[in-house]
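Board work, copied verbatim: Serine/threonine protein kinase
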Amino acid sequence: MNILRRTRFALSLVTLSCLVTAGTAAELATNASWPKFQNGGQCVIAGAKLPKEWSSEANITWKAKIEGYGQSTPIVSGDQIVVTSTSGPNKENYFVASFALSNGEKLWQVELTNPSPVENTSYVSRAAPTGVADADGFIAYFEGGLVVALDHQGNIRWQRNLVEDYGPITSRHGLSSSLEQNDKHIFVWVERSEEPYLAALNKSDGETVWKVDGLGSTSWSSPRLIPVGDTVQLICSASGKIAGFDPATGKRLWDFDQISNNTTCTPIPVANGRFLIGASDGRGEAAAQTDGTSNGVIEIVKQEDGTYQADFAWQAVKAKSSFGSPIVADGTAYFVNRSGVLFGVDLESGKQKSTARLPIGGIWATPLSQDNLLYLFGSKGTTAVIDMTSGDPVAENVLFESAPAEEGQMARGGETLYSAVAVPPYLILRTGDTLYALKNPSSE
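↓ predict structure ↓
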């Protein structure tokens, strides 16, 4: 990377920091502590110290059962943790439930009817999309096409049946795309088998602001707002395709297709106009030859004619991802592959810095970082805490032991750790039917 490009990258990091700070201030003004999926891609945690060590008995502040089963990430606003789940032989029932952050008490629960019942098996998504929180309450979204807005007491403010409005939702393994939001709108991405679409809905009443074609490819990732210059773009990633949209109008701004097997990882902002993307190793000989270079940083550049183009700023040589998205911490991009191998790649140059095999297997939950520690949450219940400077393990924490899923398949045969949320001093972990709140004894 030449000096000019390095300088531009450094300036972009400063700009992104300002944009993130402004966004965080706005979110704090709504009293939301973790207001959307992956905290908008901001997975470096400030504030009180998170616990480093725990087990099935140690450092668990509380544990709460969730009715039914769900794969969404909890969202947090003030003292409320809100989760979604589903139950019934054909996922007939949907639930939105609120638990107290301080003690795990269930504060309220709303039961809804699924407009698109389908057999409830481990081969399909089960309440997988994550909702959002803002000053007015919570908005939940389910893969059956139901969108519902609730106030902080669990009262329904408005409800939309997207199947009734835009037709049935059919997709292999179901949908898992979470909601994205700005101040006025939520963004819903329905990458179904036929006529996929991306839509913006008013947060105040649920009415459609705009609706455009989706990408037409397999995806279980989520849309992400990324700062580009003095604007923001809505980025969607599906197998073999990435596209940028104007969040105000839905206009498609650019397309990129020099990528493969980017089906599950959501774009992570790393600098103004730049985002980190992850892809799995796919299947078969051809996939094994090409997909290592589908992990890296993509840069969006405005052209002289006002249009935009996207391309890799750098591509990893060996680093690959699994279900969990890669993250950036302390100038390093971290990827975890299906076998639990951790790759550390220099964020600026793309050069591989480190590699280590971890005792956690693959991951579903997005990793988190605080101070000099990296938290890697294995789907089978073991979390590795790594010192990012030395690369040495700090702790290996077994919350539960679960039978592994078959490679590339939806988890089944035992408990699965789907997500982790940090609300210092609490670390919140979610399995299909249980919430765990972990905290250091010293923070009592």
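Helices lie at 3-29, 162-166, 284-290.
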